[in-house]
Fold this protein.
Amino acid sequence: MHNILGFRQYLKSENSYKDLEKIITERDSFFPTRDGFVTIVAMCGDDPSAFIKQKKLDEKVVIYPFAAWEENAQKVAGVYKKSKKELQKVQLIYYSNNPEGLTYPLELLVEIAKLLDFKNLAVSDSDFQMPYKELRRAYDFHIAISDSADEALITYPRRKIRALDFDKYPINRLAMEDLENMYIYMLSDLNTIAQKADFQSGLSITNSAAHDHLDFTNVGSWIGNLHMAIQVIHNKGRLENNFIVETNVQNESTINFDVQCAKIDQLYKYYLIPLSNICLLASDHPERYLMPDWTADKTKDEIKNTIDQILEMYLNRKKA
């Protein structure tokens, strides 16, 4: 087996339990081990053991309760390497009963891919905003274009519709995604601006050469995916971003406004670029930096007002 299908999951809500059951019960239909795939769920929140027993899924999974090492993803990956078994079953790595953000599970899966010498790693959100069949289509595309083992490759599929959860959300989430993506443009390769890649589709796929460039030391708990893109592209890795995928409507999200503000704080702490600078660039040149799915029917002033609202709410939150 050469490829990891990785999910990151916070197991807490009713929907998250349904998602976990779907990961397990439908895996063989889309990512069977005979096709070279190992499925690993890096999870925190509730202990999945009782749920797995209740649903009679014991024969389909192996659970690794590694919460004792939750502060160190590299250590957990090392322990997993020594204790892994029955890779034909879904591997549930339970690393913490507390939410640890998005960086930790990404780093954990990258470290496992490195230690076990896997060729490719996909890391997906577990909410199935991107259906299982679309995950497989995107993974097959990535494998097909991975021409050279020496060339770092990172694939971000492009959502046909950015179907985000907008309910009770105080800002324009599409605009916020675009502003966060601008950090990648500024810090990796300005040539990526024209591509307007969908860096936050909920799925990234990397090859082993890309993993050699990845270091998450001191990276904030919410910005690992952005940091990964910056590292790979900055080191002349190949970015693939035009593979279109269908999406489901996102019914719930762990990314609330406080989390998005924390992401901006962490980006500033690590890269020293304030959100105000990003907002100024976006307002002055929206056609260059922002996606048309929310800007096409707006005037430049309307776009600026949307961005100003985000900045104002962010600054007010910092004062609170």
The radius of gyration is 19 Å. The chain has two domains: 1-128, 147-237+253-320. The CA atoms of residues 178 and 290 lie 6 Å apart. Residues 1-128 form one domain.
